[in-house]
Design brief:
By secondary structure, this protein is of the alpha/beta class. The protein contains 16 helices and 17 strands. The N terminus and C terminus are likely disordered. The protein binds pyridoxal-5'-phosphate.
């Protein structure tokens, strides 16, 4: 097999011709910024990113040229166009193109215009958003729901809104950025436990409580993790929280509506409905719209969040079209049609996982709409991502620090409207791309193993100091 691919300039890269810096390093290398020049000090990141872009090895910031359906057309950040099977959009029940959801959005626009024109703390509520609060509460068996403009703002806002500097936050090491950033904004007492490790969570809680019997502890996890697709023992974690007078927050962004016979996700599958303390979620994966929520049993918590959770109080509310779309999506999620879509999604997921396994590609997690395919070394994964786009498959690559170093992976996102042929196509293309990438990357891997390659940041620093 000849490993040769075309870069975005139309020229070909053969083994040994790609700059090693484009195959190594991570965004984490450029996170620390030092010096007085606020603009100039971000240049090293751009130099590294642009080198990757020049070789079409920067697979982020793609744009779709069509609706995000099972087949789509997309343009990469380097301007390369791909048209083919799409496993990179989050629309798990394929509701974003559902005629009833589109009609609901259009009717809401006709009635209200396109904008909510205010924070929900002022005049941003509409009859759609008020009804949506009730529908979410009913679906989860909670009394109250607070809507947020995005899932991210709900995650950030619930932590920042309820936790104070003397309190503690204990999180699974892989919890989503919104929750980690919320914790950073609220307190310096942030603790992590190993991924899914309830015993470690118990040990940490015991230590925190022994040292501090007086302040609150918020424990945070996800029902299905967004990059690993695995799920914690929610009941176990809940019981540990009770033991140490801590409160459990569960982020259900990736499985609510789309997993389980009734669409209650891991909360339903683990018999936790009715027992969870606080639930946060996003509408952007299954419910066809931007938007997020916090569900609670306490009217006081709801009212408090409305005025003390910055992303709720000081941000514009979901638009009428968004709230109406989610309402209609919920109607489908709760109907027989929703159950049929979930079965179709799960059939696709199980078939995809089995076919990837047959192609000797490593899949992790438990069955759900997110299917992570581990590739390993970042360099090899970047080449495979580029090759997949050339072969006409749209997928998302995720790298450190979103996942552990050396564990780069494709995060496939399955939709109900995919079919077996789409999945066969994807698996065939992915197996080809990964094999070719391994061959193309091999000499770099050997070079990296044999020499200590300077990290891009050190090189950039050297370039900078040479220039000054
Ligand atoms: C676990 C988790 N929580 C929250 C969010 C944020 O949701 P949204 O993209 O709707 O803002 C995401 C999505 O990226 C997520 O994966």
């Amino acid at each position: 097999m000849k490993a040769m691919t075309k870069n975005c300039n139309g020229s070909s890269d053969t083994p040994g011709e790609l700059p090693i810096e484009a195959l190594t390093g991570s965004v984490r290398d450029f996170q620390e910024l030092r010096g007085s020049d606020l603009i100039g000090r971000v240049q090293p990141f751009f130099d590294w990113q642009d080198l990757r872009r020049q070789h079409d090895l920067w697979s982020y910031s793609k744009a779709t040229n069509t609706a995000p359906t099972s087949h789509s057309a997309a343009t990469s950040d380097s301007g390369v166009r791909t048209a083919g099977v799409n496993f990179a959009s989050q629309d798990y029940l394929s509701l974003s193109s559902h005629e009833a959801v589109k009609a609901a959005a259009k009717a809401a626009i006709d009635e209200y215009g396109v904008h909510s024109a205010g924070s929900s703390a002022l005049l941003g509520n509409t009859r759609f958003s008020l009804q949506l609060e009730q529908v979410v509460s009913e679906f989860l068996g909670f009394e109250h729901t607070v809507l947020y403009p995005t899932g991210w703002s709900a995650g950030f806002g619930v932590v920042q809104g309820l936790v104070r500097p003397d309190d503690h936050v204990l999180m699974d090491i892989l919890t989503h950025s919104c929750l980690q950033e919320g914790a950073k904004a609220a307190t310096r007492n942030i603790h992590f436990h190993g991924h899914l490790n309830v015993d470690r969570a118990r040990q940490r809680l015991a230590r925190i409580r022994a040292n501090d019997p007086n302040n609150a502890i918020m424990v945070i996890t996800e029902s299905q993790f967004s990059m690993h697709a695995d799920t914690p023992d929610l009941r176990g974690l809940h019981d540990v929280c009770r033991e140490y007078n801590a409160l459990l927050v569960i982020d259900v962004a990736h499985d609510l509506g789309c997993v389980g016979e009734t669409g209650h996700g891991q909360l339903g599958l683990q018999n936790m409905l009715g027992d969870a303390d606080l639930i946060i979620g996003s509408f952007s994966k299954t419910f066809a719209s931007n938007g997020g929520f916090v569900a609670t049993r306490s009217r006081a918590v709801k009212e408090y969040l409305k005025y003390y959770s910055a992303t709720q109080t000081f941000s514009n509310a979901m638009s009428p079209a968004q709230a109406a779309s989610v309402l209609q999506a919920f109607e489908i999620v709760r109907s027989d049609e929703g159950a049929a879509l979930r079965r179709k999604l799960m059939d696709n997921v199980l078939y995809l996982r089995a076919e990837l396994g047959k192609a000797r590609l490593e899949v992790t997690g438990v069955p759900g709409a997110v299917v992570p395919v581990n590739i390993g070394t970042e360099g090899s994964a970047r080449i495979a991502a580029r090759r997949l786009a050339e072969l006409a498959a749209i997928v998302n690559l995720v790298e450190y620090p979103a996942v552990p170093k050396g564990n780069a992976r494709f995060r496939l996102q399955v939709m109900a409207n995919h079919n077996k042929k789409d999945i066969d196509t994807l698996v065939r293309l992915m197996a080809t791309a990964v094999k070719e990438a391994e061959v193309l990357f091999r000499p770099y891997g050997q070079e990296l193993a044999a020499t200590a390659i300077p990290t891009p940041i050190r090189q950039s620093a050297a370039r900078q100091s040479a220039a000054t």
